[in-house]
Every structure is written in structure tokens, then in C-alpha cells.
Amino acid sequence: MTKALDEVGIGGIGASRKRVEDSRFIRGQGRYTDDIVLPGMLHMEILRSPMAHARIKSIDASKAWEIPGVRLVLTGEMAATRNLAWMPTLSYDTQAVLATDKVRFQGQEVACVVADDPYIAKDACDAIDVEYEPLPVVVNPEQALAEDAPVIRDDKAGQDGNVVYHWEVGDKAGTDRAFANADRISKLRLHYPRSHPSPIECCASVADYDRATQKLTVYMTTQAPHIVRAAVAMIAELPEHMIRIVSPDIGGGFGNKVPVYPGYVCSILCSILLERPVKWIEDKTGNLISTGFARDMYLDSELALREDGKILGVRIHADADHGAFFADAQPSKFKIGLLHSAFACYDIPAAHLTARGVYTNKAPGGVAYRCSFRVTEAMFFQERMVHQAAKDLGIDPAEFRRRNFVRADQFPYRTPFGFLVDSGQPEKCLDVGLEAIGYENFLKQKEEARKRGRLLGIGISTMTEPLGAGNSREYDILGIKMFDSAELRVHLTGKALLRVGTKSQGQGHETTWAQIVSHELGIPAEDVTVEEGDTDTAPFGMGTYASRSTPVGGAAISMVSRKIRAKARKLAAHLLEVSEEDVEWELGRFYVRGVPDRGVTIQECAMAAYSNMPDGMEPGLENHAYYDPPNLTWPFAVYIATVEVDPESGVWDVLNLVAVDDCGVRINPMIVEGQIMGGLTEAYAMSNMQFITFDEEGNCVGSNYMDYLLPTAWETPGFELHSEVVTPSPHHPIGAKGIGECAAVGGPAAFVNAVMDALDGTGVRNIDMPLLPDRVWQALRTGQDVS
Ligand code: CDP
Questions:
Q1: Ligand 1 proximity of 738 Cβ (cutoff 6 Å)
Q2: CA 507 to ligand 1 center in whole angstroms
Q3: Can you give the residue ranges of the Aldehyde oxidase/xanthine dehydrogenase a/b hammerhead domain (predicted)?
Q4: Closest CA to 383 of 11, 699, 754, 9
Q5: DSSP tag of 434
Q6: 268 and 128: one domain?
Q7: Average pLDDT over residues 320-326
Q8: Among residues 627, 646, 667, which one ends one of the domains?
Q9: Residue 293: strand pairing partners
């Protein structure tokens, strides 16, 4: 008698299956954009502006044209003849492709050269003579909003200042009442500094316009190939099937590869003009100074508190520095992303948020770096504020959180900002975390150490965040709803090909997507091949960012598998010669109700779909599903760090970091752990060492890896991960919630709170990230906040 399969044994949900993609990655056999070589291919380099704000008086490219091997020098003026000097952004703004009137940030694209090899192209860029007339430079919101500030976007009709938008959400009157009734008000002003996702592989494209077929193929490092195809179709007024966007292997994205950058557009235009394939490979500094920065937000927040520790209301004002173009991608309804998801794990009666976006002379900023549209800023501010409020009230920060958490029986919980948090067990997660770190014991150690002049600190960060944008009622990019898709073909041998609208940049989709099919159909994961990233073959999807792949794409995979199963059931009934109602399912096989020995496997059904289908049934076993999620999924996380600060130098070391992540059902526990470890490493880097900023002239400081530090195994502390709390999402077909970004979102506050805790009693309320030793030392020496 055939038995139902052991799900983990066939690589289904819960199996820590080794990543199948790694066999090619670790052998150097990945196929990245730079590996693509086409016959007759030329190479493109970009000339970037050395100045942050300057009028372009003239561009003389005559010397560049004289260099042997140069095929094209493209300037903004030439691009304008094709109506391509400017392009629309994913946030309904416009962005210069190649500057025509003036440059607005250091590193902006001014011209590009196409040549026989990249070195000739680079030399030719250096030979272009650009005459600039410097203009006053604006590098932060305060300067941008000053009365005498130069208008950066004077290209836009009606733009008379540097404000991009004003946005507001929540209940102002109710929040004012809560503050009027408060026993105490706790305030904090914070800056979440600019950071750069800095993927190992920079942006790249190979554009190939075929004059004979008039088809445009672009290989490029994009996390969202279908969005790019839609944008190109709209700009170029070409039908979608004449455009093929292929996203091959990607060496990290983290949100950096969502926007459409000028380099991509230039390579396309050059290929069309030259009728030859054109390759553009960005260099590291080009990537660091000109592509999607994240964060850069100033935040004033206030909590209205009752003496017993109850939070009565929250007021938030955010100033977001978007740089020269509002070019990040986010749902069109939410100007400042999902910043208003702040405080969603706390039961707070009233909340109000105002936000203002500003233009500055910096590269476009605000991309969701491992983050669902500003939730990183939201959770950082939330947890810094909660820590400070607890201190202000003299209540233990763990206890303060406990008093304000949404209780497990309150879910689904409607936040004052309107989100519906699907599920969670905040208190239970906190208990696990406190137990693991040895909370009470550490507090005693801290007191003892103090007596000997040692500064120990413990910092907690707890949060739930909205992952899986999102339902079509509220979420769209450029008007396209944020559903996702899957197409499944089960061949007659029972092997399967799965194509999904998401696009992995290293997250392991080829492994985990097969596991979902395995879970639904009982086909061993190793028999399922996963493909993503080619718009000619993948179904239309919105791509991978904001940890939306599992909540949306993963759900689509379940749904398409279930459609396949429904057809297989009919085939099983036919093969077993019983009615469909008498057919039962167990993993991998159907059997006759009450007669478990009489059954057929899913593979036998697959064979029948092509060789022995019942009369009237369409042959084949394939289908597709588009999934419009009813809600976002809400993972919950607790991160607790302990640190020791050296009072002589300001250097701080992490003693321990405990992470408790409840992301519902884990498809592949090993991959989930990898995601958390990676996120915590980034969180540690942001809080401890990563610094990329701009001087008064708008020069980017930190535009190379000598200055912008990536943590290696040497600096990165160890992390202790806990997975015992599992709250399945009630609306996701397999109960999974997103996880990719949680630790990067929630982690920074744990480290910063720990350092601030170590500084208890010094009068210092805040040190802005990164908490470099000199900043901590300065705070210790002066007893003043450091911003
Ligand atoms: O959108 P992105 O892939 O970056 O994020 P995600 O949906 O959170 O998934 C990251 C990786 O973790 C994928 O390989 C997922 O399949 C896996 N994952 C999992 O195994 N179980 C979960 N509950 C969530 C994600």
C-alpha cells in the first residue's frame, strides 16, 4: 500500500533544504549581466558631474569623438531630440536621464560614450569638456526649506520651493486630546542617516535592439522586470511583446535595483541609435554616489503618557530628504511609504503623522533598502521612542512594552493609522527573548559593573511590520496593482516547471518556491524547476522587494498548485473509476474514500493528463494564478542586544544578541535563519560603522569601501536565533509571513538602545547613527546629545 509522503523528506515545507542555486553560485557559474556577451556588442561609460549644483554652460565632446574606437557620444541635448533627456520616475516625478540645463547632485549623469571597449569609453568620457557655473548647494531639509534657498527643481512648472509633498494621516483632534490629558509627554528628535544598500554587483545592462524584428531585449539587474517593461513600453510607446526584459542572476539588490536608472535608459537609447548591443557596467563609486540611497529622515516624535506607563497617543512629524529627484518606488497612495505602520504592535488609542518631502542637491534617496517602504525608519523611531519614554517614566523598558503591547486576543487589530494587523503573540515573543538573554541577571551585572566603572547596556527592540504589499484596494506602483503571479506546468513525467513574477537577488527562491509546490502536490522539490525574471516567459508580476515575495508570490504558487490539484483529482477519479466526490487526497496521491489501498499518485495523474484523460477534458496539466492578497502579513520580532561601552574611547562591543522572529510558517528554516543573520549584520553595520554623508558643497563622503564600511565576519558579532513562536498568518494560504527584511528593520534600535542604556545617568538622550566611537566618546565627555 502506498503511504502519504513525508513532506520534509521530499523537500516540502519545513525542510531545511540546501539552496539549489548555490551549486552554480559557489562554483563561479552564475550568469550575471556582465557575463552576457553578444555578437557586435559595444560598451558604454557614463560621465558624471563633479559638482552638486551647477548650470551647464557648454559641453564640448569634440576630443572624445576623435578617439579611435568611439562610436557615440550622447549628451542630454541629443537625448532630448528623442524626448529622452528626462524620464518619469516610479513616484510620479521626473528625473534627468542626461543633464541639459543644470546638474543637481554630485555624480549626476551628464553624458555617455559608447566605444569598442570600456576603457576607450572611459578615456573618452574624460576627454569631454563640460563648463559648469556653480550654484548654491543645499544638502539637508533645513537648508532646503530656508527662505533664500535656491529652487533645485526649477525645471518643474509651478515649483517655487524645494518641497516635494506634504502628507498627513491619523486623527489630529483625537491625538491633541490625548496629549491634553497626558500626565507626561516624552519627546525625541532623531535622524536616520542616509545609508546605501551597496549590493556586491553594481547596476548593469545589456541593451540589444534588433532592427530586423524591431524587438528590444534588455538584460539588466532589476528586481522588478515587469515594472521596467511597463515603464519602457509607456516611454517608448512600444507594445510590451516587443520588449523583453531579462533579469539574470543578481548579486544582491536590497532595494537598490528597483528604480529605473539613467544608465539603463542610456544603454537602450544607444543600442537603438547604433543598432548594436550596448553593455553598461556601473562601477562601485558610480553605484554608491548616484543610485538609490535609503533613509535620510529627520523625525520629531512625541508620546503622550500616563504615569502608570500607558501610552495615550503618538505624534510624529517627518522630514524626508529625497535628493534631487523623487525617484524611489512606493505605493502611490502613500507619499512617505508605510511610515505610519509605526507603533502597530502597541495598543495606542490615538495617533497623528505629518510628513514633508524635500528636494536637496543629493542623489535621489528614499529607496526601500531591505524595507517595506519606510518601515525601517518607522520601527527605528518607534523603538527609540519607546525606550526613551520608559526611561523618562522610570519604568523598565521590557515592562513598559508589555503594558502597551496589543494582546494576542486583540488580533486582528486595527491601528489608529488604519492598518489591520493580522495576528501575533508579542508578549510570548518578548518572554522568550528575555529568558534567552538572561534579562534579570544582566540588569544585576550591569549594576555591579557600574561600581567598577564599566558601562554595560541592554537594548530591546520589538516590532511588527507590514510585509506583502499589497492588496489592490490600496497598493499600486504607477497605477499597476501589487498582485503577483505563478504559472505551473506539470509535465507528463510528473516533473514540473514553475514560473513566478518575483525575482530573487540571492534570497533562495529557486529552492523555496519548489518547496511550496511540493507541499501542495507532493511532487518532490527536486523535480520542480523554478524560473523567474524573464518577461517573455514569466507571468506578469511586480517583482521582489519589501519582503513581498512569500506573502504574495508564494501565495500565488500555492493557489496555482491547488488549481493543478483540482484537475488532477478529476483525472484520479477517471483512473480509479469512481466519482470525484469519492476521491480523497493525501500528500502526493489520491485514493478511494474508505479504500486507502486503491490510489494513484500525482505523477500518474500527470501522465493521464497527456495520455488518458476522460472524454471532454482538455489535455495537459498546467495553469496560472494571479494572487491579490487580502491583507499584508505581519511578522513579529524581538531583538535584544547587550553591549559594553569603553568609557575611554567610546568603542562599543556587542556581548550578545538574541533574536526571536515569528514569521508564521517557515518554508525553509535554514533560509529563514540566513535571512535573519544577514539582516542583523546589516543592522549592526548601520548602527555601528556605516557612514555615507555629504559635505557643505554636496560632495559625497564615503563613496568607496575605504570609508563606507561593509562588515566582514571579523567585525560581525554572533547572533542567537529563536524560532519557537509561530503564529501563522490567518489569510495566507500556507500561513507564511515575510521575513527577509525584519532583522534589518528591527535590529538597529536594539543596538542603539543598548548603547543608550549603557549611558544611563549621563544625561544623554540620543546619539544619531552610526554610533561611531568618536560620537559616543563626545556624548560621554559632554553629557550632550550628538546629532
Ligand atoms: O521578498 P523576499 O524574497 O526578499 O523576502 P521573503 O518573502 O521574506 O523571503 C525571503 C526568503 O525566505 C525566501 O527564500 C522565502 O521563501 C524564505 N521564507 C521562508 O522560508 N519562510 C517564510 N515564512 C518566509 C520566507
A1: yes
A2: 7
A3: 27-136
A4: 754
A5: H
A6: yes
A7: 97
A8: 627
A9: 365
614 in the same domain as 656: no
| Dist CA 613 CA 575 (whole Å) | 9
Residues 6+ away with beta carbon under 8 Å from 46: 109, 111, 112, 125, 262, 263, 266, 280, 282, 286
**Does 727 sit in the ligand 1 pocket, CB within 6 Å?**
no
Is 221 found in the same domain as 281? yes
Any domain includes 180: no
Cβ-proximal residues to 57 (8 Å cutoff; 6+ apart), any chain? 131, 132, 133
pLDDT tens digits, one per residue of 496-509: 999 999 999 999 99
- Same domain assignment for residues 458 and 511: no
591: CATH: 3.30.365.10
Residue 121 has phi, psi (to 5 degrees) of -60, -40
C-alpha distances in Å from residue 646, one per residue of 62, 130, 762: 59, 50, 14
What is the domain count for the chain? Answer: 3
Whether residues 444 and 518 share a domain: the answer is no
298 shares its domain with 442 = yes
Q: Complex ipTM above 0.95? A: yes
State if residue 666 touches ligand 1 by the CB under 6 angstroms criterion: yes
Range of the domain at 78: 33-135+202-250+257-290
Cα of 614 to ligand 1 centre, how many Å? 39
Q: Which atom of ligand 1 is nearest to the CA of 545?
A: 1
Assess whether 615 and 651 both reside in one domain.
Answer: no
| Nearest atom of ligand 1 to the alpha carbon of 635 | 23
Task: Please indicate, yes or no, if residue 270 is contained in any of the structural domains.
Answer: yes
Length of the chain: 787
For residue 1, the model assigns a pLDDT of 52
**Ligand 1 touching residue 506 (CB < 6 A):** no
Average pLDDT, the chain: 97
Whether residue 27 is predicted with pLDDT greater than 90 in this model: the reply is yes
174 pLDDT higher than 80: yes
Residue 723 CA, ligand 1 centroid: distance in Å: 15
**Distances in whole angstroms, Cα of residue 168 to Cα of each of 302, 338, 374, 623, 769:** 16, 12, 15, 43, 26
CA separation for the pair 553, 222 (Å, rounded): 17
Instruction: Render pLDDT for 659-696 as a digit per residue (tens, 0 to 9).
Output: 999 999 999 999 999 999 999 999 999 999 999 999 99
